[in-house]
Design goal:
Length: 390
């Protein structure tokens, strides 16, 4: 007699978000009105049946532009109740949880706002305590903004590097494991990396936010049924601002370790210019995206994803704002506290990164690679952007 594993059978049952995403995709695959809207619909038409991994792939291709919701003749109050962005958002959140490492902390995604607040407060307190223990006088002293003066008097260099490196490496490992798990789920093998065309096309789409531009440049339904490119511009400001800040940190590390030039750096030095431009970009982008999130209509969105979205934006805004504040007060007596607060929120970001909406970036890029690999394999790649109907 065959073994009867009830627990396994129950855990293999599709979840409610998966069932709803499958129902919606089956209706869309029969309708196909939105075929030219984004990468989701061409990818959908390559499937006859929607396995769990295929749905995860489609969910992560969607960036919730809401175009198909406002165009859909079967959207609520129609009895079919088709709401693609909401269904795919719910499943996307579930895919973040399913692939998290270590698995028990997956529940953090749905409690991001609370976790980020507690973690930020704890990290700021921890850094302040560290500074007070090391050299309490330096915390409130006036600092000279000259190389070698300032930052390392407040927080010892070795402590700063040890904490930053440990948390960053942990986050990078957790993200890498999640990425490998997700790649397996959507059926993307390591071999795809040897096919440079899908990878390059995915990078191009991600770097240009191609599908946030709409099919003919008029943009997306950012907050309601009208079209605009506002979300794309704010997203660019935030993403490229983040990249510039990362480049500023990397440049500072090279200056320090390779050339022996310790921080702080002059106002027009490369790390400061990169960090200032990047910080301003992040502030503008984060505030703009928060405004769109809070002003947008609720119907096409998943309430469960709104919390993680807002929490990450607030954290990124806090990193950029405290970084710019630190630059402004670096030769005053409040520099020590400003440094501790900035390092505290950066530390909180590193810790929460693998369990926050940040994973959207790498999952979406991976889904785009599979999308282009599928199109290559089916010989159906269209080099020009698809166009919207109607
Ligand atoms: S979202 Fe609506 S209109 Fe668009 S393909 Fe699906 S069912 Fe058709
Ligand atoms: S919400 Fe936008 S990105 Fe998502 S499936 Fe609809 S048209 Fe595509």
């Amino acid at each position: 007699m065959q073994d009867f594993d009830l627990v396994k059978m129950l855990s293999d049952l599709p979840s409610a978000p998966e069932l709803e995403a499958r129902r919606v995709m089956e209706v869309c695959n029969a309708c196909r009105y939105c075929e030219g809207f984004c990468a989701v619909f061409p990818a959908m038409t390559l499937q006859r049946h929607f396995a769990s991994g295929d749905l995860s792939h489609l969910a992560n291709l969607c960036h919730s532009c809401q175009g198909c919701y406002y165009a859909c003749q079967y959207a609520p109050p129609h009895e079919f109740g088709i709401n693609v962005p909401k269904a795919l958002s719910e499943l996307r959140l579930e895919s973040y949880e399913q692939h998290a490492w270590p698995r028990p902390v997956a529940a953090l995604y749905r409690k991001n706002a609370l976790i980020i607040s507690i973690l930020s407060a704890a990290c700021i307190t921890g850094v302040l305590l560290l500074a007070a223990i090391f050299n309490g006088d330096a915390l409130f002293a006036k600092h000279a903004s000259v190389p070698g003066g300032g930052f390392y008097n407040v927080i010892p260099y070795q402590a700063m590097i040890a904490v930053a490196a440990t948390t960053f490496l942990y986050s990078a490992l957790a993200l890498a494991i999640s990425l490998v798990r997700f790649s397996r789920t959507i059926g993307l093998g390591i071999k795809v990396l040897y096919q440079h065309v899908p990878v390059l096309r995915a990078l191009r789409d991600a770097a240009t936010l191609r599908y946030l531009g709409g099919s003919d440049g008029e943009g997306c339904n950012d907050a309601d049924e009208t079209f605009s490119t506002t979300r794309r511009k704010f997203h660019h400001a935030l993403a490229y601002g983040f990249g510039l800040c990362f480049a500023a940190t990397a440049t500072g590390t090279i200056y320090d370790h390779m050339f022996g030039w310790p921080a702080p750096y002059a106002l027009f030095s490369l790390p400061v210019v990169l960090g200032t431009v990047g910080g301003i970009g992040m502030v503008v982008g984060a505030i703009g995206l928060l405004w769109l999130k809070l002003a947008g209509e609720d119907a096409p969105r998943s309430p469960a994803l709104l919390g993680p979205d807002v929490a990450l934006l607030v954290l990124l805004l806090a990193i950029a704002a405290t970084g710019l504040l630190l630059l402004a007060v670096r030769s005053t007596e409040v520099m020590g506290v400003a440094l501790a607060v900035h390092l505290g929120v950066v530390l909180a970001f590193f810790l929460v990164m693998p369990y926050s909406k940040f994973v959207h970036g790498i999952f979406r890029l991976t889904a785009l690679v599979r999308h282009h690999a599928d199109r290559e394999a089916s010989n159906g790649f269209a080099s020009s952007p698809p166009t919207k109907k109607g």
